[in-house]
Amino acid sequence: MKINTILLSIYFLATSGFAQTFTPVKDDAAIRKKFTEVSAGTKSIKSDFVQEKNLSMLAEKVKSKGVFYFKQKNMVRLEYTQPFKYLLIMNNGKATIKDEAKTTQMDMHKTKVFQEVNNIIVDCVQGKALSNPNFQVKIYETPTQLRLDMKPTAKGMKEFFDNILIYVDKRDYSVLKMQMNELSGDNTIITFTNKEINGNIADSLFTVGK
Amino acid sequence: MAILRTAFLLWASSTLLCGCTATNKINVMDAFTNCPPVFQPAIRTATYSAQLDFYKKHISGLFIFKAMNDSTERVVFMNETGFKFFDLEFTPHQFAVRYIIPSLNKKFIVNTLRKDLGYLVIPPIENSAHDQPKSENYTTFRFPMEKASVYYSTDKKCEHLQKIERGNDKKKDLIIDLTNASDTSLQTVRIAHQNYKLTIFMNQIKSE
User: Fold this and answer.
1) Measured between CA atoms, how close is A80 to chain B, in angstroms?
2) Any CB–CB contact under 8 A between A178 and chain B?
3) Which of A169, B44, B55, B202 is the most exposed place for a label (fewest CB within 10 A)?
4) Minimum mean pLDDT among A65-74, B30-39, B163-172: which range?
5) Is B72 an 8 Å CB contact of chain A?
6) What is the ipTM of this complex?
7) What's the pLDDT tens digit per position in A122-155?
8) Which residues of chain B lie closer than 8 angstroms to A83, CB-CB?
9) CATH code at A21-206
10) For residue B159, what is the DSSP state?
């Protein structure tokens, strides 16, 4: 009985591992086209997110969570609610940050790495990630997901990240997970859940104070 | 191993006693026994939400303090979205920069971080020379260093570390105010430089 259980566990582990193995997409151009088409139809997204920071020195992850909002064309609200309050709004080329003490504004064009990191999600939902000149992008797939492997080519990003992996749900081409792998071996994983695509989101959410 | 430990204890005891004779101001052994918060790390393993203000620049993030198994202390600072700024390693006699982003990798910045954060994670060595200046509100221990003294102050009963300062009896160039969450962990830390506008405020969000 015990041996059967072990064999069964090995079988499931092996088959589930096989099912999750990403392989290069067969028709790269078709995927890119589909990605652009679906993204063009994405007017808004509201999604919960969980962020996990993996530091090599820590056995456990540093976890935080919040709500992500996107509205065409370039409006993003990233609102952390636990275990700290932090709000990042990107709107019209300006980023506004409200932390527990202060509200600060910055011109995203002047802070390139900040701009790149925070634009990646927007690029994904707009279908621009695949044509971002600052990354070399390869696409892999399983029966249910796509994975965009983004290797930075621009100087700034190359100093921080080894690569950025974007996991996309094949059913609606929405982003499931972002994994930012640093050169040091640490990484940050943001997982999106409870997505509402094309729901009504007020513009006022993309200004601070709301 | 036991022999080594005994030898070390004997050596430590003798140095402590020597230190006592040399300073001739306070019984070091008694000070250590009666006021342990001064000789323990102010922070071991905990996560703090933090804000840094340097003149008009403001940045927020998370400070992660971790006491490692190899007896080193690590301090990582990253912003809320997970972008890591630096990872520093402290031991009583050594300091190493494990990681720092290029724009912060300046001698002045690294030295400031080493000293400011070092006061929190590396306590004064038990046998280092010190005396006890009079204070109305605190029990204070003064440790003379190369250019200035460092003052560690607890409440009158020596139960909690409340303040760390650097300077002389008349003027301090660094003041670190501490408030306690419990007997063993700090709730808030406020590091304020007096000669230039650098303030770091930390509020604990998680302890081990």
Assistant:
1) 8
2) no
3) B55
4) B30-39
5) no
6) 0.80
7) 676 666 778 788 889 999 999 999 999 999 888 7
8) 49, 205-206
9) 2.50.20.10
10) -
